[in-house]
Amino acid sequence: MKDKIKRIFREQFLKEPLMVFAPGRINLIGDHTDYNSGFVLPAAINRGIFMALAENGTDSCKLVSLDMGEAVEVNLKNSLRPTNTGWANYIIGVMDGLRNQGLEFNGFDAVFGGNIPIGSGLSSSAALECAAVLGISRLSGNEISENDMISIAQKAEHEFAGVKCGIMDQFASIMGKEDNAMRLDCRSLRYEYLPLDLKDCGFVLLDTKVSHSLGNSQYNKRREECCEGLNTIRKKHPKASSFRELTMEMLEDSKNELTEKVYNRCSFVLEENNRVIRAGAYLRSGLGKEFGQLMYASHEGLSNLYEVSCCELDLLVESARRLKPVYGARMMGGGFGGCTLNLIANKGKEKSISQLRQSFETAFGRKPGVYEVNVIDGARII
Ligand code: ADP
Ligand code: MG
C-alpha cells in the first residue's frame, strides 16, 4: 500500500514525498462513554490511512483521494471552509485547525489511500485526520504536541464533518502502542497502557457492511439525550456536574422526572463506565472469558438501553454467544451498522469464524466482511 501511494505521488507530482501512516482503532469496551466524561479502552490496529505529501511552492494544495478517485484543490489565500466533497473536509478541517493554532504551512500536494473499511466503525475518519495533521505539520517543520494533534483532528471532525465525536478515535490513532490497549480517562485525558496478552486468543471483526452514515444524526441525538438527563438530575443533585459525579442513586432518585428513554440512556452510560473499569482489571490477568462476559454485557446495553444497534449486529452477537471459543462479542463504534468485535480463542477460531459467517449469510443472504487485526503503534512517519 505504502509503495503504491508513493509511486502514484511520484508519477503525478514528480517529487519525493514524505510518507505518513495513521491507524484506525478497535475499542475493546466503552462505547458512547467518551463524550460523557467517561473511560474507554481502545487500541490502534494494523489498518489505516497512508498519505504521501510534499510542498509545491504555490499558494494552493492539491488533495488526491485514490480510493474515491477524486481530487480537490484548496486555495490557501482564502479562508478555509467545508466543501461539498466529504472526504476533503477532514483534511481541510485539519488545515484550518493548524492555522488557528498559529501553525502556518505552505502549499502542498497530498495523495492518500487506505486499507481500512470506510464507515465500518474502525474510525477511518480519525485515521484520515491524524495522517493529515501529522503529515502537514511535519512538512512545514512545525513542532506539535501529541495533544495538539489529537485536538486539531477532533475539531476537524466536529466543525468540518459535522460529527460531534468524543476524543477516543483521534487519541487512539495518535497514541496507539503495539500489543497494548489504552485506558483513557476522557475527562482528564490521563491514560494508561495495558498490555494485551494475545497468545491464546485474538480479535476478529465481522463487518455487517451496513453503512452507519445515517447514524451521524442519531449519534448527535444520543449526546443531546445524555445532556438532557444530566441537566434534569442536576436540579436535584447539583454535585452531578458530569457523568463522573453521577451515581446510580442520583439517577434512581430522579427517575420520575426523566422520560424512560433518557433514563435508559443515562443508566447505560453509568453501567458501561463501570464495565470499562472492571475490564481494565481483568486485562491484567489476561484476556479470556471474564473479559468476554463484559463485552456481551456491553452489547446488551448498547442494543437495549442506548438503542444504537441494528438487527445485523444483534444477530452476529447472538450467534457468537452460542460458540464456545468466542469469549466475547459486541458491536463497536457509533452503531447502526459497522462491525462487531469478537474475542476468539485461537483453538477453534477458524471454525467459529465460518459459523458466524454462515449464520449471517443464512439470515441476510450476503457475506459479512471478516478482518483479523493486530494491535500496533500509533501514527508515524514511515
Ligand atoms: P468511520 O470513521 O467509522 O470509518 P465515518 O463515517 O466517521 O466512518 O468516516 C468515513 C468518511 O471518512 C468517509 O465517508 C470519507 O469521507 C472519509 N474517509 C475515510 N477513509 C477514506 C479513504 N480511504 N479515502 C477517502 N476518504 C476516506
Ligand atoms: Mg469516524
Walk me through this protein's architecture.
By secondary structure, the protein is of the alpha+beta class. The protein is built from 11 helices and 13 strands. It has helices at about 1-15, 85-100, 125-140, 145-160, 170-175, 215-235, 250-255, 260-285, 290-305, 310-320, 350-365; strands at about 20-25, 40, 40-55, 60-65, 70-75, 110-115, 180-185, 190-195, 200-205, 325-330, 340-345, 370-375, 380. The model has no long low-confidence stretch (mean pLDDT about 95). The structure holds adenosine-5'-diphosphate (ADP) and magnesium ion (MG).
- First and last CA, distance: 12 Å
Mean pLDDT: 95
The small molecules bound here are: adenosine-5'-diphosphate, magnesium ion
The low-confidence parts are none
What's the arrangement of strands in the largest beta sheet? 5-4-6-3-1-13
- The helix count comes to 11
> What's the SSE pattern?
HEEEEEHEHHHEEEHHHHHEEHEE
Percentage of residues in DSSP E strands = 15-25%
Helicity range: 40-55%
Rg, nearest Å: 21 Å
Q: How many strands?
A: 13
Largest sheet: 6 strands, mixed
Q: What structural class do you assign from the helix and strand content?
A: alpha+beta
Task: Compose a concise summary of this entry.
With 382 residues, this protein is an alpha+beta fold. Helix content is 42%, strand content 22%. The protein has helices spanning 2-13, 86-100, 124-139, 146-160, 168-175, 215-236, 248-253, 260-284, 289-304, 311-321, 349-364, and strands spanning 18-27, 39-40, 42-55, 60-65, 70-75, 108-114, 180-185, 191-195, 201-207, 326-331, 339-345, 369-373, 380-381.
